[in-house]
Amino acid sequence: MGNFITRHKRPILGGLATTVFVGLGVFSLGNISGYEAMSLLEASMSGLNMLCNTIILAATTILALLLTLLGISSSADNNLKKDHYHQVLSIAKFDVILIVGALVMFQFFNIPIIESEGVPTSWFDIIYWTTLIISSILCGMMIIVVLMLYTTVTNIIAIVGLKSDHSLLDKQTDSNDNAKTNEEHRSTSKKND
Which tens digits make up the pLDDT trace of 100-115? Predict the structure, then answer.
């Protein structure tokens, strides 16, 4: 876990900043009563459903596009270190957690809590704050996934497109491949002589 945090410090800080920023916006509403929470929950339910739908759509698209990224990575002339594939694996894991969280919240938002007569009015403020906190966390997690993907894509652009010397290039494998190629050329030239 510590290694994950050190490798992805910037995306995690960006996600935490987003969560705190959205959370502060939510808490600026102040203390509300059960009836106010019920009316606010009713007003925000369609927006929360749309947020979950958007996150699910974006996260599943990112997961599908990771396959394309792996195809580009494996077809590159350069040999990439395992760190690159660990980055892609981290994005995939985090993305799946985001998809599952958004699906669970989407299902929770579709429960007709407001129409239920068995829910005490005092619970609506707890339900309201919980939904807003979890939606803030989902927004922060989406930012983390996007920033992790951005880092990985910029690395691939630098390696494949710009052909620059990059820390993710496995130079040891390149030198071993060059030595094997030179040895094969020598053995072929000896056979020809």
Answer: 999 998 888 787 766 7
Q: Exposed, middle or buried, 165 (CB in 10 Å: 0-12/13-18/19+)?
A: exposed
Tokens 């987003």 map to which residue? 18
Q: How many domains does the chain have?
A: 1
Residue 55 structural domain: 9-192
Per-residue pLDDT reduced to its tens digit, 133-158: 888 888 888 998 999 888 888 877 77
- What token pair was written down for 82? 């395992």
- pTM tops 0.90: no
Half-sphere exposure of 118 (CA within 13 A, CB side): 1
155 in a structural domain: yes
112 in a domain, yes or no? yes
